[in-house]
Specification:
about 325 residues, alpha/beta, TIM Barrel, 13 helices, 10 strands, about 35% helix, globular, disordered C terminus
Length: about 325
């Protein structure tokens, strides 16, 4: 029996021309997650890379999403080698480790934590020191699904991939296959591999070679790319093959300029089936501008389900705590 394939985006906050106007300002912005979850069953939380939220904030995410909705959470930056002192990655402090693990607890307790995503820094090359970072991650998350995204070619080139794959299998880590510009050393080849029976992840960064190495004011400057349906179709056979082997798959879009990630998530979800809900009107208009027509599947799609209602006694607390995190 084929395993589930879940398609979503890498955050829910920044999508332009997706949310109703009333969710674009003030306290109502917290309801974007509830609106997003009407259309997609999974999201990757990337804000946890930049700052560690309080558990009460994370509990607000739990309350504002359906029972079957799941989260992947990016590990805090010091855990993945991004914090450096004198150009040398520094290990996380005890407080950083403790606070990050505490932030995961509401998702664990609710059953909504699917994976903890370790996106290694591009200077984390295939060395014994970098492999120690992975071993530390396994010790830190003895019962969590840990997903690893490599950002340097040394893990793949010159015969490196077989050893990398073997290490991931030994640790029962999920390999994160990426679609990204194939330029320079700080990228990974487009490759999907099953290294754990618990999950398989494909992550889409876009293919903008011009912006891949620039430092813009926001990450949207770097991931400025809207895939065509034809480009996404090349991933469909591998994703389906993983599912047919009984391994659940997540396909997540990180091309977060404008509403590109949302448009492409709908594209791929429709290719893989079953059909996603009918997109909001601005997303359909974006598809029509790109393709010159409205995709046939849109006309067949059902309207999205009603939004999840907050649990009694939880709404006010969620409002207060989430507002503190902004």
């Amino acid at each position: 029996m084929a395993a589930p394939i879940l398609v979503g985006t890498c955050n829910w906050a920044d999508h332009q021309d997706f949310y109703p106007e009333e969710l674009d300002r003030g306290r109502r912005q917290r309801d974007r997650l509830t609106y997003y979850a009407r259309y997609f069953p999974v999201v990757e939380v990337d804000s946890t890379f930049y700052g560690i939220p309080k558990p009460t904030v994370v509990d607000g995410w739990v309350q504002r999403s359906p029972d079957d909705f799941v989260f992947n959470v990016k590990a805090y930056r010091s855990l993945t080698g991004h914090e450096r002192e004198d150009r040398v990655p520094r290990p996380p402090t005890a407080d950083e480790e403790r606070e990050f693990l505490a932030a995961l607890e509401p998702l664990r307790e609710s059953g909504k934590l699917r994976a903890v995503h370790y996106q290694l820094a591009p200077w984390m090359t295939n060395t014994p020191q970098s492999r120690e970072v992975l071993l530390a991650a396994r010790d830190r998350h003895p019962n969590d699904i840990v997903a690893v995204e490599f950002r340097h070619r040394s893990w793949f080139d010159n015969g490196g991939w077989p050893a990398t794959e073997e290490l991931l299998r030994e640790l029962d880590f999920v390999y994160v296959g990426v679609d990204a510009p194939q330029i320079g050393s700080a990228t990974a080849p487009p490759h999907l591999a099953i290294t754990s029976p618990r999950l398989c992840i494909a992550r889409f960064h876009g293919r903008n070679r011009r912006t891949w190495y620039i430092r813009g004011q926001t990450s949207a400057d770097r991931f400025d790319y809207l895939y065509t349906p034809q480009e996404l179709e090349s991933w469909v056979p591998a994703v389906r093959a993983a599912s047919e082997r009984g391994v659940p798959v997540h396909a997540l879009f990180n091309n977060n300029r404008s509403n590109y990630a949302v448009v492409n998530a709908f594209d791929l979800a429709a290719m893989l089936g079953p059909l996603p809900p009918r997109p909001p009107a601005p997303i359909i208009e974006a598809m029509e501008r790109r393709d010159g027509h409205v995709p046939d599947w849109v006309r067949k799609a059902d309207e999205p389900p009603a939004p999840v209602a907050p649990r009694p006694g939880q709404e006010a607390e969620g409002q207060r705590q989430l507002r503190l995190s902004l």
